[in-house]
Write a structure and sequence with these properties.
By secondary structure, the protein is mainly alpha-helical. It is built from eleven helices and ten strands. Helix 1 (5-18) packs parallel to helix 3 (65-82) and helix 9 packs parallel to helix 11.
Amino acid sequence: KFPTPHIVLFLLRYWKRAGHVQAIEMVEKTLHAMRLGGIYDHVGFGFHRYSTDSQWLVPHFEKMLYDQALLAMAYTEAFQASGNAEHARVAQEIFSYVMRDMTSSDGGFYSAEDADSEGVEGKFYVWTLEEIRSALEPREANAVAAAYNVRPEGNFREEATGNLTGKNILHLGKPPAQTASELGYSEGALAALLDVARQKLFQVREKRAHPHKDDKILADWNGLMIAALAKGGQVFDRPEYVQAARRAAEFVLVSMSDSDGRLLHRYREGQAALSSTVDDYAFFI
C-alpha cells in the first residue's frame, strides 16, 4: 500500500475545479490515516516507503526523498484547502526531518535511508515496552503506551510466522482527544506531554545503529524537494524553508551541470555524472 501522493494532489485539484465534496473527503481520510499509522515515523518524522498491510500499520521501513517531497506537497495543499492544522503540522514535520537528516553540507538532498540496521528490518524504529519505560518518566511512559498502542507482547509480528516479536511500531489508533479523555488530560496537556516524551525517545534512538543512508544526490528528486520547500515556505511563512530550497537549487545548477549547461543526473562524493533524463528537467524546472 503505497502513499501515492500524486493521486491526492489530483483529487485536490478535482475538488477545487469541479466542487465534488467526495474528492476532498477522500483526501482528508487518506492523509489522516497515514499520519496515524506506523508508516509515519512518530519519533523522528517522515514517512516510510509503503505499508505491508491494509491499515497503514506495518511499513517497509525505508525512507525515500521523493516520498517526503510529494507528501509534504500533499499535506501543505490539503491544509490550504481545508484549514486543518494537523496537515500543516505533518508537512512541517516532514521538512524538519529532511533538513535535519537528509541534507548535505552543500545543500543538496540525499536520496534515501535503508529499512534495516544490523541486518534486521525496522530494528532502528521499533520499541519494547521496557525500552520506553527505561527512557521516560512513569507518567510519560504510560501516556506513550496508551497513545501509541505499545503492548508488553508487542504489536509487530514476524513476517514469516506471524508471531508477536515483543517489539512495537508506534502508531495512533484513535483520535488524541479520546486518548486524552481516557487518561484524564486535556488534549493540549497530553500533546505537550507526548512531545517531551518524543524528544527523549529521539535522543535514545539516536544512539542506536542507524540505517545506511543513500547519499546520492539526484537532480529529479532534488527538484521535487526544492518545489515542496518553496511551497511550504510560502504557505507557512517559514523563510528557512525557502533558504533550504534556494541552497539546493544553487547546488544543482553549479555542481550538477556540464560545460554546456545541461543537467547531470546524480552527484556523489564530489563527482557529478550520468546524462540527465526528462524527469530531471521536468521536476527541477
